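Regression test case RT-17, inverse folding.

Input:
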């Protein structure tokens, strides 16, 4: 009866996570599609494949917890114990580091955040939007810390030794941890695909807008130039970066038929965007069409015919996001945009190398989650009552050094000293070799000091 009750609880948790994942996908995928229509120029049929992947990447993110619970239910008692110990430590490390980041960031920006229309709710929504960026920054290191914490606890109580004596290998004992690291790396890749860069852009634009509002209300005005279609937008009172559905007020559009030759001017009290029809609707509008005939004399005033409209619709390709952020387009920040820029074949060779290097770095960093976990496993495990502090210290040092290497080698690649792929993957190559060496050392039941002494020894060959 007790076994049946335990199985019922386990599978009830799986079904609950499955239902929650379905509800989350049902809620988030349409919202992401609407956000894409607000951000990306052109019609949905013109969207590149990499952009169309955005809603579908939400799907595995929603159902991975249910898959994890399914694997947990199918595991042995020993695997469940290791998984519970590790998952508890990993979640606690992630929560603590996230909280530390938010508290420190809030202390630095509390003055600006208090200028929001609804400071309490606005601050909550802001940091909720920052979670992809925060998790993308800390996930590799919370994996490292969580694994060190869990395995140090198991090793100090000699539970690892007991598991080894049961006939399991070190790698088999840590299989639940490795699977958890793979799951975390998938989330890391999903966040880094678009949402982490988007969070960073949202942060930059929001604080820029708040700073302008604090210094000068008139500085809210924005100018956007569409050189490809010879059009300039003047926005007297655009909506905030977090208010995508709000109308634009005090709008003026200048359309040119040739450089310096205006075709018409459009003034409107209000302008709204319909993402379904890709149409702008101007209310209380005045449209002035300028004569395209050349003036007879230089001092002649151009002739125009003005007409008033209660409502005027125009098919302009600009999206609200482009107008609000004229200097930085959101669809050029994520991984899909990097691919588009690389395919565009820019003539700036250094800029192209930087784009290619960044594209490789974003993929390589996904595997850094797994590599740091493989470094943490042998670093935390000790035998024969040895202290784990030396191993933990080396693991933390290696994690800090990885931050430096992910700046050093990509910089060399961007400057042309290394191939772009090698500059991005070099830290992973180095750390994979280190992880393999650490595992070999731990399988031989040797300490780190013995490993270092072994590296210093020079073999003596007898040639007699």
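Golden output:
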């Amino acid at each position: 009866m007790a076994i049946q009750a335990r199985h019922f609880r386990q599978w009830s948790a799986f079904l609950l996570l499955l239902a929650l994942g379905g509800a989350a996908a049902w809620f988030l995928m349409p919202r992401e599609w609407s956000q894409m229509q607000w951000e990306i120029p052109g019609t949905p049929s013109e969207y590149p494949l990499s952009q169309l992947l955005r809603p579908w990447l939400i799907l595995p993110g929603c159902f991975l917890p249910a898959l994890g619970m399914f694997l947990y239910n199918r595991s042995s008692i020993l695997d469940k114990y290791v998984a519970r110990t590790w998952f508890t430590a990993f979640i606690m490390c992630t929560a603590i580091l996230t909280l530390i980041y938010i508290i420190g960031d809030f202390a630095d920006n509390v003055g600006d955040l208090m200028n929001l229309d609804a400071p309490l709710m606005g601050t909550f929504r802001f940091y909720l939007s920052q979670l992809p960026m925060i998790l993308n920054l800390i996930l590799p290191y919370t994996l490292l810390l969580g694994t060190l914490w869990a395995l140090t606890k198991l090793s100090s109580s000699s539970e690892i030794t007991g598991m080894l004596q049961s006939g399991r290998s070190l790698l088999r004992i840590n299989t639940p941890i490795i699977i958890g690291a793979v799951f975390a790396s998938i989330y890391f890749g999903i966040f880094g695909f678009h949402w982490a860069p988007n969070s960073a852009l949202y942060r930059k634009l929001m604080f820029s807008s708040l700073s302008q509002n604090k210094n000068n209300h008139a500085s809210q005005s924005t100018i956007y130039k569409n050189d490809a279609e010879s059009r300039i937008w003047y926005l007297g009172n655009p909506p905030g970066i977090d208010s995508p559905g709000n109308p634009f007020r005090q709008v003026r559009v200048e359309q040119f038929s040739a450089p310096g030759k205006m075709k018409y001017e459009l003034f409107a009290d209000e302008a709204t965007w319909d993402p379904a029809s890709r149409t702008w609707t101007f209310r209380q509008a005045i449209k002035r069409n300028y004569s395209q005939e050349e003036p007879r004399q230089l001092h002649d005033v151009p002739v125009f015919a003005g007409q008033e409209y209660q409502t005027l619709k125009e098919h302009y390709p600009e999206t609200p996001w482009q107008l609000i952020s004229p200097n930085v387009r959101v669809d050029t920040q994520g991984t899909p945009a990097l691919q588009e820029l690389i395919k565009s074949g820019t003539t700036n060779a250094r800029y192209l190398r930087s784009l290619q290097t960044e594209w490789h770095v974003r993929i390589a960093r996904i595997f850094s989650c797994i590599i740091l976990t493989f470094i943490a496993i042998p670093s935390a495990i000790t035998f024969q009552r040895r202290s784990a502090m030396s191993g933990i210290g080396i693991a933390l040092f290696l994690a800090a050094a990885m931050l430096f290497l992910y700046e050093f080698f990509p910089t060399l690649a961007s400057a042309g000293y290394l191939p772009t792929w090698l500059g991005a993957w070099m830290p992973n190559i180095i750390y994979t070799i280190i992880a393999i060496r650490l595992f070999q050392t731990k399988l031989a039941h040797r300490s780190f000091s013995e490993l270092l002494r072994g590296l210093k020894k020079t073999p003596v060959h007898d040639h007699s």
